[in-house]
Amino acid sequence: MKPCLSVLFLFLTLNVQAQEMSLPYHQIPDYPSEYTSGNIVSRLVDGLGFRYYWATDGLTPSDLDYKPSEEARTVMETLQHIYGMSETILNAPSATPNVQAKDFGHYSFDELRKMTLENLQAASNLYSAMQDDDFETSKVIFQRGDKKHDFPFWNMLNGMLSDCIYHTGQIVLMRRANGNPQNPNVSVFLGKRRE
């Protein structure tokens, strides 16, 4: 019976590793050969994606429930918040309105993680194809009923992109405080995990 359990454990471990490798941002993509406005914004999104991937890798149910104080968000609530902003990051290049705040409470951790990483990858791809003039038509639009408020792309940089990086750092801090620190071999400077 023990050899069967060992084989089953090995299979499950390899299956989880294969699923993890299929998610974007296990490693940051190679950098472009030239500097353009689109490539720079794309690289900023890639840096966020890489940080988010490793900040959320190996989170436990206890980590997801953790919050530093009664008034604070849990890690899971922070992940839901980041996911909502990842939708806005994805919508900006096409000036697609962000309609009414949504409740993401019905998504599991795995679903939120996957969808967030996929949103960031799709946004990075869109940004990398943008020319300088394209940023003039790229807007952050919020629509609440008949009311629509649009903001220039500048607000995306100091708003959602910076906020997502900030909250990703909070996840790293909260998981450490909960006794489950991020993988110490992750190098955000190199954009990969040291072996």
Q: How would you sum up this structure, described in words?
A:
Helices cover 57% and strands 9% of the residues. With 195 residues, it is mostly helical. The protein has a single domain (41-193), classed as dinb family like domain (Four Helix Bundle (Hemerythrin (Met), subunit A)). It has a 3-stranded mixed β-sheet with strand order 1-2-3. Strands 4-5 form a two-stranded antiparallel ribbon. The longest helix has 24 residues, at 154-177. 28% of the residues are buried. Mean pLDDT is 91; it is low at 11-18.
Summarize this, please?
With 195 residues, this protein is mainly alpha-helical.
What keyword list fits this structure?
5 strands, Four Helix Bundle (Hemerythrin (Met), subunit A), 3-stranded mixed sheet, 57% helix, two-stranded antiparallel sheet, 195 residues, globular
Topology (elements, then pairings):
Blueprint (H helix, E strand, L loop, with lengths): L1 H21 L14 H20 L4 H5 L9 H17 L6 E2 L9 H20 L5 H4 L1 E6 L2 E6 L1 H24 L8 E2 L4 E2 L2
Parallel strand pairs: 1-2
Antiparallel strand pairs: 2-3, 4-5
Helix pairs in contact: 2-5, 2-7, 4-5, 4-7
Main pleated sheet? 3 strands, mixed
Number of helices: 7
Name the overall outline.
Answer: globular
CATH architecture: Up-down Bundle
Strand order of the largest sheet: 1-2-3
Contiguous uncertain segments of 5+ residues: 11-18
